[in-house]
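TODO from last week: model Coenzyme PQQ synthesis protein B.
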Amino acid sequence: MKIIVLGSSAGGGFPQWNCNCRNCSGVRLGTIKARARTQSSIAVSSNGKDWVLINASPDILTQLRATPALQPARSDRDTGIAAVMLMDAQIDHVTGLLMLREGRPIPLYCTAAVWDDLTLGLPLVHVLSHYCGVQWHVLAPNHTISPVELPGIEDISFTPLMLSSKAPPYSPHREMSQPGDNLGLIIENKKNGKKVFYAPGLGVIEPHVHTAMRAADCLLLDGTFWSADEMIRLGFSNKKAADMGHLPQSGKGGMIEVLDAITGPRKILIHINNTNPILDEDSEERATLTQHGIEVAFDGLEISL
Ligand code: MLT
Ligand code: MN
Ligand code: ZN
């Protein structure tokens, strides 16, 4: 089983178009050691030709150009994307669907809560019905947690877990979370039992999430913010990380502390916001992560399990 990180940044990407924070201007000018990153998405395959796209970022076309494996060129018009699965309805995870409009109807796996947002708040499904159309496969019906097999994707099972995070700002459920607004995903290679747990938006580590984390061989977890009040301190927002559904890395009960208590899996942060000091590879914060055995995902990172 192979996983390719197509985009490792949070919404806005890195550098963000309108941002001149230390990180964004530093990476633009080359004054800090950091890599640019596109918005949040991964691809999973067992045979290297048929892929499940997990989240469809607005940067998808750039990501596909950078990832030849996703264009197997078996016919005049082709794609390696066999299906798209969504973890939530955030703009950075769904608007790439519009970029896939020239293809065949998109097999789309998402919960009823996310489908709701994509038919009402941000009606991409309606828009796409005038192009390729979307075939909805409901994920986690009745909020059940059971493995899903995808046609054409052999030897991999996908188990969605309900997470506590946030629906997008435009969603009617932003302030009243519904089950299925946010998912994590256990991706298992059925041939050898190896598991990845993927959760790009994670606000609270509930017991079932902790169990999934402990059982995994590799963790790809919410790395949005270093500190709880990062956006406030920079004067960019009045929202704390928790208000946006993200668990910060530092501080009591933060991601570093959570991960310290788990031994075994490879630990990787993903969905990094452009304000996060860990993007500067020479920063103290990055050194702290390294001391704790925690890696930071980058675009193009490949994981084989
Ligand atoms: C989030 O996950 O909170 C998003 O990255 C916000 C956004 O897309 O602007
Ligand atoms: Mn996001
Ligand atoms: Zn910035």
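Done. Residues 2-304 form a domain with the Metallo-beta-lactamase; Chain A fold (CATH 3.60.15.10).
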